[in-house]
Amino acid sequence: MTYLHPKLEPVLARTLGVPLFQEQLMQMAMAVGGIDGDEADLLRRAMGSKRGVEKISSLKTKLYAGMASNGITGELADEIYDKIEAFANFGFAESHSISFALLVYSSTRFRLHYPAAFLAALLRARPMGFYSPQSLTADARRHGVEVRRLDLDRSGVDAELEHLVDGQELTGPTGDPVCLVDPQPVVGPYDPKAPFETATHRRDGAYAVRLGLAGVRTIKDKGAALIVAERDAGGPYASMVDLVRRTGINSSQVEALATAGAFDGFGLERRQALWEAGRAAQERPGQLAGVRSAGPPPMLPGMSGIETDMADLWSTGITTTGHPMQHARDQLRAAGVRSSAELKQAPTGRRVRVGGVVTHRQRPATASGVIFMNLEDETGFCNVIVSVGVWTKSAAAARGSSALIATGRVERAGDVVNLVVDRLEQLPPKPPGATSADSEVPASPPTGETRQAASGVARQSYRGVGDTARRATARPDLARLVLVLPERGRGSPTTRSDDARHRRSNHPFDLWTWCSDSASSPQLPQPLPLKGTSARDHAMFHC
Predict the structure, then answer these.
(1) Residue 469 lies in a domain
(2) What crossing angle do the helices spanning 74-87 and 60-69 adopt, rounded to 10°?
């Protein structure tokens, strides 16, 4: 290890000659620049300001004079000063780095041994952090945590732990007792290819995570607290009408709960619950029960797996049983598109295609315009590096698509695998002749033919159906049309206060539609995402 000057060795030895912390920069300036503690503190404060380089420059004369007194002149003095000035762009306090390191270590240990409790804690703290609730939940499920949907009689306000088996008594922690030995045995060299057994380390294996009512759109904390408080005071709810009469929640809240499957415990399929939601919402506290008569609901089909997951995403932002890419995997595999797990096995330099839901797009100020993206599928995440040229060439897909296919070459930096892309494609691909208008809310009402075809099963509002319904009924191979859910909900998607949260959660409704359209079974319902209408308005149409 070499140093620019012997006086810098005591300062930089512990970081192998590279200045990492602001405190080291202060020590360097004092060691070779001859400045005192007050001036070094001024240097530290300058590094943390937006005009750090300008403020550091004000000490330039003093630093050069001090270096000259130590025999440091010419190019060597310039090199040391350049390092000090450049460090102002990324300097970090050592005290902060120690605090972050402790948080990372503690969180990692907590996640390793108590993954269910870790997930519940994160969901209770949302919105927060770098990852969406959907990504956090998918990661926990990949590590053996069972995540359960909402239940009107079991769910609390926030996510909670519950026993995997009803009535189960906790007899002790799960996992290998070796994890409790103190001190822990010496850990050998890290082998990224070694198999990892989550159950060996997990201490809360007797618990599952139950989602909370506050995570349902339109319910929020206030509505969830009202529902739980009334349940605790008056006992479990007997029916959907009982819930409305005791709490006074409105129609949009009942619909959101029905979409989330909160009424499954009453024996209601989600389409049946959505049908009943409109009538139940007319009941009010203080009215006589049973004064509103209604005939029996029509026979409605149950939702498919794709539709159920889409309903979960729309209502809570979290799927508990599947992932968008899981339903598209057969089509992607046939097209030569790999999963993120398969990417990690690909040789370095191999040109591959990877598909996934976009979770993040980042352009750091120090990256010279390079964009870093994360794609997520049912097997995990993959890192995608996009150059300025590729981003410009694929701007439409890269900016606006919730899911992408990335083509590029595999790059490895130690154990980290990246894909340096040369092409980005929208997933699903646009059909021939499609325009951006196809994804907008059609303004025209449906044709008489469409209305006649649907009216044999249900009489519903046709707001926003328009061209989407006409195109669907024009398909000769479509056995039945099921307009399941809107993409955003009521009103303009750009004016809703909660819309940003749902965009952050990456709800790839176009991907769900493509999965269904690509299926060969004629009995598979075709979910069509619509904007501008409520969930109940498009819960059940058949042709």
Answers:
(1) yes
(2) 140
Residue 436: per-residue pLDDT: 40
3-state secondary structure 156-196: CCCCEEEECCCCCCCCCCCCCHHHHCCCCCCCCCCCCCCCC
Domain range for 461? 436-538
Amino acid making up residue 275: W
DSSP 134: H
Per-residue HEC secondary structure of 360-404 comes to: EEECCCCCCCCEEEEEEECCEEEEEEECHHHHHHCHHHHHHCCEE
- Of 92-106, 271-285, 301-315, which gets the smallest average pLDDT? 271-285
- 106 — phi, psi (to 5°)? -65, -45
Average pLDDT value for the chain: 76
Q: What is the pLDDT of residues 117-152, one digit of tens each?
A: 999 999 998 777 788 899 999 999 999 999 999 999
What's 236's DSSP letter? Answer: S
Mean of pLDDT values over 192-201? 82
Task: Report the C-alpha gap between 317 and 308 in whole angstroms.
Answer: 12
DSSP label of 319: -
Residues 254 and 126 in one domain: yes
Q: Is the pLDDT of residue 354 over 50?
A: yes
- Please give the average per-residue pLDDT across 440-453, as a whole number: 34
Closest to 256 (Cα-Cα) out of 109, 395, 112, 152: 152
The 3-state DSSP class for residue 88 equals coil
Residue 386 within any structural domain of the chain: yes
User: 411 and 446 share a domain?
Assistant: no
* Cis status, amide bond into 127, omega within 30 of 0: yes
Beta bridge partners of 405: 355, 425
For range 338-362, the mean pLDDT = 93
136 plus 223 within the same structural domain: yes
Global pTM reads 0.73
Q: How far apart are CA 358 and CA 403, in angstroms?
A: 5
The single-letter code of the amino acid at 66 is G
Helix (H, G, I), strand (E, B) or coil at 410: strand
Which CATH number fits the domain that encloses residue 347?
2.40.50.140
Cβ count near 406 (within 10 Å): 29
Can you tell me the distance from the alpha carbon of 109 to that of 201, in angstroms, rounded to the nearest whole number?
Answer: 10
Cα separation, 354 vs 338, whole angstroms: 5
Q: Which one is predicted more confidently, 79 or 519?
A: 79
Structure-token match 């498919």, residue found: 304
Beta bridge partners of 377: 380
